[in-house]
Write a structure and sequence with these properties.
Length: 182
């Protein structure tokens, strides 16, 4: 049984690293500019917080339209950042010195991705609150999460875990808001 678990973990790690290599190998100058911009703007959920604030101002100052995304973003960021201490996974460029990240390197643990957590929380809550903009918001959230692998600072599993944290935070806040408004 223990050997099976170790084998499964080794298999997941190998797939994770192979997927990282495939994504990190893709380098297009315009895409690199976009990915750097998304990752910089997405630090600590800033992009999503500003979008929520702008939409709040533009659509009639309804408190849930500000509080739902902001709280989902804050919760997802706190959960992701605290979870890093339990796993303490090294970043790709630490485990393989041949990897040269395309941005300033973070000093925190790799798992889970905080950028991905806040991107999922922000893009999902905002998409639910402003359905006409959902495709653009969700695409921006996806690209922000993907940027972390593309730029060389996270493995895909780190990003997936962050997205799951952000999705859970968004679902929780949207459910609470629905209950409060019912």
């Amino acid at each position: 049984m223990r050997t099976d678990v170790k084998g499964a973990v080794r298999g997941i790690r190998n797939i994770d690293r192979a997927l990282f290599a495939a994504i990190f190998r893709v380098k297009w100058p315009l895409l690199t500019v976009l990915m750097r911009a998304l990752t910089t703007a997405g630090t600590a959920g800033a992009t999503w917080g500003f979008i929520a604030f702008g939409a709040f101002l533009a659509t009639g100052l309804k408190p849930p339209q500000l509080l739902v995304p902001w709280l989902a973003i804050i919760i997802s960021w706190l959960v992701a950042e605290r979870t890093k201490y339990f796993f303490n996974r090294v970043r790709p460029y630490v485990s393989d010195t041949a990897i040269a990240p395309l941005i300033k390197t973070p000093s925190s643990s790799s798992f889970p991705s905080g950028h991905s957590a806040t991107a999922a929380a922000g893009s999902i809550t905002l998409a639910a609150l402003y359905p006409p903009f959902a495709p653009a918001l969700l695409l921006a959230g996806f690209l922000t999460a993907l940027s972390r692998v593309y730029l060389g600072v996270h493995y895909p599993v780190d990003v997936l875990a962050g997205v799951l944290i952000g999705t859970a935070s968004a679902a929780g806040m949207l459910a609470l808001a629905a209950l409060a408004l019912a």
